Amino acid sequence: HKLWQGPNEEIVVTIPEGFSLKDIDEILAKQGIIIPGKLSSFSPIELSQEFPFLRGVSSLEGYLFPDTYRFFSHSGAKIVAEKMLKNFQEKVLPLVNSSQADLNKTIILASLIEKEVISDSDRFLVSGILTKRLKIDMPLQVDATVVYIKCQGEYQNCPVEKLNKNDFTVDSPFNTYLHRGLPPAPISNPGLSAIKAAFNPLPSKYWYYLSDPATKKTIF
Fold first, then answer.
1. Predicted TM-score of the model (pTM)
2. In whole angstroms, how far apart are CA 27 and each of 35, 61, 63, 88, 130?
């Protein structure tokens, strides 16, 4: 019976799109799959030989592919990371036609798109707008990066309803209002829709967009 059933039952856990590394760590820790804090502090260097796309990456943020997984209790951070990274490798790498540096930048861009807009079609437009801004060295001015700073990278325990004027003045490399270019690392773990949009920015006449809080629609 033990040989047939295995040492213990699998735990099914769903990682939503746009969750941060700290959010995922908390979900898995609550389920008894990892020790709290182990995944968010796990060094990608340990797995960079098996997953070359992790070379030069400071954390797993952005590379833990959102999906439904099965883990045994007390699996540990390394086993969790390996399973999620294999999923990333299978789903995302076939889309890549560029260098390692471009992949890292694309995942950062995808993480912004994931947190900024909900609609799949809007994401391609927003990707085009942000890409245009990058090309002319215009500040990205992405509110989601300011939320990431304010919440210290943990969205689930930080329901920010509205940013105030002081939030935009925080001197952080993630503040895209103060610093030009992309932030130094992803601000979330994007799903396939946002990643595809980042790889395929849609040209348009637009330079700005707003999210209507009532309808959740994006106004370009």
1. 0.92
2. 11, 15, 16, 19, 31
